[in-house]
Amino acid sequence: MSAPNAAPYYYVPGPSKWPLFAGMSMLATMAGAAGWVNGASWGPMLNLAGILSTLIVLYFWFGDAIGESESGKYNARIDSSFRWSMSWFIFSEVMFFGAFFGALFYARSITLPWLGDLDHKMIWPDFAAHWGGTGPAGTIEPFSTMGPFPIPTINTALLLTSGVTLTISHHALRAGHRAKTAFWLFATILLGATFMGFQAYEYMHAYSELNLKLTSGIYGSTFFMLTGFHGFHVTIGAIMLSVMLYRVLKGHFTPEHHFGFEGAAWYWHFVDVVWLGLYVVVYWM
């Protein structure tokens, strides 16, 4: 937002086709995913088509919003609305990850000891009540659990460093140093991309050498759900920061008014905090 005080009113855009197109695209994405996991031949193609169409819709939809901002249609009231909207969005993401952390806690701290007590030995005589156990013979293929070294620890350092570089970039923008802003923002994006590269390698290592898969009991499902969704959020955050880098280079922000940058930074710092929780709970405990 370059000129939030230009308009003396609360700008309300006219009817838009993008919400309808976004809903249709996301429906296609999820229908394709459902077909894919159930072995339907059309599932992967429909899923890919849904993802691509969603990205196209977002490109044009956010492009409209950027155009409205740069043309001076937004004011301080719109800025406040954006801040509240981003705050509630991040809160919804907190609850999203909270559900998975809750599932992990319930499985490991409540269900696991309960299934391993003396009363259940007759039902599951071969069950070992320790996290990462393989269950009764023949139910789950043997696998090894994932430790914190070296890749998870390297990724922790990468994300923590990216939080620092993003903060430097933000302070540079507030000081009016556009070149410095772009440099440190690019460094942040590069660190995020490196994180994703290491996570892809970690997944290949888990599948090929540890035999750790999504089907490896509750350990495998919670591990891949938590780390996989976090990796997805890192990817989304890197895309958001890339758009902000493009806008910085185009001269869209001013030192006083740059909520687009701030909103992306909030999201990235949220992703950093979630990873710290994952690093401790998933890899160390």
Structure description:
It contains seven helices and no strands. The protein has helices at residues 18-37, 43-70, 76-115, 151-174, 178-208, 217-249, 259-284. Helix 1 packs antiparallel against helix 2, helix 4 runs antiparallel to helix 7 and helix 5 (178-208) runs antiparallel to helix 6. 71% of the residues lie in helices and 0% in strands. It is mainly α. It folds into two domains: 1-74, Helix Hairpins (Orthogonal Bundle); 82-284, Cytochrome c oxidase, subunit III, four-helix bundle (Four Helix Bundle (Hemerythrin (Met), subunit A)), CATH 1.20.120.80.
Overview features:
single chain; 285 residues; mainly alpha; Helix Hairpins; Four Helix Bundle (Hemerythrin (Met), subunit A); 7 helices; 71% helix; 0% strand; globular
Short structural description:
This protein has 285 residues and is mostly helical. The chain is built from seven helices and no strands. It has helices spanning 18-37, 43-70, 76-115, 151-174, 178-208, 217-249, 259-284.
Q: What is the count of helical runs?
A: 7
Low-confidence residue ranges: none
Order of helices and strands: HHHHHHH
CATH architecture of the largest domain: Up-down Bundle
Number of domains: 2
CATH class of the largest domain: Mainly Alpha
Rg of Cα set:
23 Å
The description of the largest β-sheet is:
none
Structural class: mainly alpha
Q: What is the arithmetic mean of pLDDT?
A: 90
How far apart the termini lie comes to: 43 Å
Relevant CATH superfamily of the largest domain: Cytochrome c oxidase, subunit III, four-helix bundle
- Number of extended strands: 0
CATH topology of the largest domain: Four Helix Bundle (Hemerythrin (Met), subunit A)
Task: Please bin the fraction of helical residues.
Answer: over 70%
